[in-house]
Amino acid sequence: MVLVLKPDHDPKQLENLTAWLKSLGLDTHLSVGRYQTILGLVGDTSLVDIDMIKNMDIVETATRISEPYKNANRKFHPDDTIVEVAGNKIGGGHFQIIAGPCSVESEEQICTIAEQVKAAGATLLRGGAFKPRTSPYSFQGLREEGLRLLLKAKERTGLPIVTEIMEASHIPLFKDVDILQVGARNMQNFELLKELGTIDKPILLKRGLANTLQELLMSAEYIMAGGNEKVILCERGIRTFETATRNTLDLGSIPVLHEMTHLPVIVDPSHSTGFSRLVPPMSMAAAAAGADGLIIEVHNDPKHALCDGAQSLTPEQFAEVSSNVQKILPIVGKTM
Asked: For the chain, how big is the Rg over CA atoms in Å?
């Protein structure tokens, strides 16, 4: 249930209302916007008399909602959430580009790429230290050493770092990481999501290979229910019958998610298409569709990359993509 409060409501009335609702076993979520104050009720509201609520002096309107996700629901939080990372804002009209290699391979590799993508307009650095791979024989990442090298690159360039976490026991290792990424395979690793809800770090949550948008938002709800509201959603393509691309990039999810939720939505054109030649047009299409950012794979020697070289741009190609995307942003009302 969502209550829109009257603009001139008495703070004491709000305190009394909140206390009464909590006595009914309900949690409340207060959202103070520019023009409205929203009180969301989380829990079993079936016993709440909505007509009585509507007649309260403090309440302007009261509406029952059917969606199972509450904290992530735009009805609870009409204003866009802005996630800020080291001065870089994502969401609410702010656009950021995250770039870097699929996996960290060496200090020279990650530091060189970090310098190149920063010069081309990237504002955050991505790089995999722990790599979930389909084959157990593929490169699994440098693990703790990879995290150390990412921090070296951050120290050299000042770029905040984004890297994937695969299990809750690894959280202490990520204390200096700026954004923790939950990959598509772990989107429904609910024990991991619950633990990430207890920390004060932004979480980049990727959509699963075969998951609906509601399922994506329910996964976000696991994190937010734990108290961490710094969630960034990522559309990275879904598995369909089509084989011409690695996955099918669902660009329609961007405006739909913006209707469903207040959380920022970014797009991964690299994993979704699987081919570097498709990354530039899909990057521009994502920006035009209203995405709040991009996460793009860049490698200085894609042919010899230990992971996903076919979908990685060279630094020169990335510079061109970054320049073209930045030309689109003013048209859709976004800034970097």
From this structure: 21
The CA distance from 123 to 36, in Å, is: 33
CB 334 within 8 A of CB 293: no
Residues 273-285 pLDDT 10s: 999 999 999 999 9
Q: What is the mean pLDDT of residues 142-168?
A: 96
Question: pLDDT tens digits, residue range 105-133?
Answer: 999 999 999 999 999 999 999 999 998 77
Q: How far apart are CA 71 and CA 76, in angstroms?
A: 7
User: What does pTM read for this prediction?
Assistant: 0.89
3-state secondary structure 14-51: HHHHHHHHHHCCCEEEEEECCCCEEEEEECCCCCCCHH
- What integer is the mean pLDDT of 264-293? 98
Q: Which amino acid is at 21?
A: L
**Whether 88 contacts 114, CB under 8 Å:** no
Element counts in the chain: helices (H) and strands (E): 10, 14
What is the rounded distance in angstroms from the CA atom of residue 39 to the CA atom of residue 19? Answer: 13
Q: Which amino acid is at 35?
A: Y
* CA atoms of 98 and 122, how far apart (whole Å): 6
Contacts of 27 (CB under 8 A, 6+ apart): 41, 42, 43
Looking at beta carbons, which pairs linking 327-336 to residues 24 or more positions away fall under 8 Å? Answer: 328/284, 328/287, 328/288, 329/95, 329/287, 331/288, 332/287, 332/288, 332/290, 333/93, 334/93, 334/94, 334/95, 334/287, 334/292, 335/93, 335/94, 335/95, 336/94, 336/95, 336/96, 336/97, 336/121, 336/123
117, amino acid identity: V
Structure tokens at 70: 């509450």
**What share of the chain in percent tops pLDDT 90?**
82
- By DSSP bridging, strand 88-90 and strand 83-85 are antiparallel
Determine contact, residues 279/296, Cβ cutoff 8 Å: yes
Task: Give the list of residues 6+ apart from residue 28 with CB closer than 8 angstroms, or none.
Answer: 18, 21, 22, 39, 40, 41, 42
Question: Are the beta carbons of 67 and 73 closer than 8 angstroms?
Answer: yes
Distance, in Å, from the CA atom of 94 to the CA atom of 266, rounded to the nearest integer, reads: 11
